[in-house]
Amino acid sequence: MPPQTKLPPYLRQLERVLVRLETAMLLSELDGFLAGVVICPDIILPSEWLSVALDPEDAGEPVLEHENDLRLILRHYNVVLRDLDRGRYAPLFDIDILHGEILWEVWIEGFERAMALRPDVWNDLLHDPDENVLYALAGLRRLIAMTKVTTNSNDGLTALLNEAAPDLIPDWVQTLHAARLSDSEDQFSNIQAMSTKVGRNDPCPCGSGKKYKKCCGMN
How far apart are CA 201 and CA 158, in angstroms? Predict the structure, then answer.
């Protein structure tokens, strides 16, 4: 995550809200969670994901003391969606100031929680014919797996991924978001085609005044 002074005012306010709630996700974790919610191939409504964001271990009824708290969370959701749509999503990573390391692990834990809301849908992506989609999904899952085991410094690939993760994550997330948008457009086109289909007994769209079956439908 960028230094505190570089965060937009609404994010500094949101971070204070999350700390006050105690059970809620950290800001970086929430950012990863919301990214996962947005790019999920299935729609996940706030009524479902909000309770997880506020208490990942319980996920009961969300408890917010102030209406502005909810507005801040939804605002960041919309910011994440907007940035992904523009191809400019930049994850909020925590930073170990002492060692100068980017702690992408907190972000990926939030992303994993989003995937857990629709595990079957994410598994279906394994059958996607687009190699870029498969590569992005495999990469993110590899990073998730890396957070669950002790890093082996002798594992060259793991060390390389750990160093490259901050740069790979936004590219992989954008790839999966583009795939989701493409699928949504295909579904819309199919619905639109069905809704504009002319019945055989409907007036012919050419304006002849005849039924379609006795006019252009005869061809």
Answer: 65
